[in-house]
Amino acid sequence: MAQITHDLRSPLSALMSHAQVIANGYSGPLTDRQREGLAIISQSAGYLAELIENILDLTRLESGRAEFEPAELDVGSEVSGVLTLLQARADEFKVGLASQVLPGAERAYADEQAFRRVLTNLVANALNFTPAGGRVTVTANRSRAGAVAVAVADTGLGIPEERLHSLFVKFSQVPETKNKVRFTRSTGLGLVICKRIVEAHGGRIWVESEYQKGSTFSFTLPSGPPKATSSRP
Length: 233
Known about the structure:
A five-stranded mixed β-sheet has the order 2-4-5-7-6. A two-stranded antiparallel ribbon has the order 1-3. The chain starts with a helix and ends in a 12-residue tail after the last strand. Helix content is 43%, strand content 18%. The radius of gyration is 20 Å and the shape is globular.
């Protein structure tokens, strides 16, 4: 699977590049109908590119070849950066974004890019399933075990209880909520990747939800590097 998806990247990149060249008018003027066709090509190619990247990432995670460089993170700064990145989408959907980093959760120990990927995925999912006028809130707190717990809560559709067990399974979908708020193309791998990343850092990820009332996805990360252990001779 890894080899197949890797081999798909080059021709797909060429397709996307040439479509963009044509869309920019470098090959001559376009009719409105041609522009619509190119837009469909670009959107579909983008979906395939995301699917390929997710499969490659998941393959690396499952084989233990994913490399992380944990370091001390400023949780407030990282959360703010992710929300700024997704603010335009929230404005488009007319969904409010908010965050709160509580005392004791200001620092976490994780790979910066990995932390951003997990949080971006969870917030983006929350936005996709929250109707206009709703709200998505990110909260960071200190758990009883001393870890940093980050929660992404929304006022969206929620998830039926009988579907919760399948959320972190490859390619799983929730038919009761799919495309009910707005059309989205999901690979069904995002939450699986989040789970693998969090567990690789020694944390855990879980979901609490009530159908038609909203969901909260939470994950934990260490608050600092592992303590060195000493052994007597």
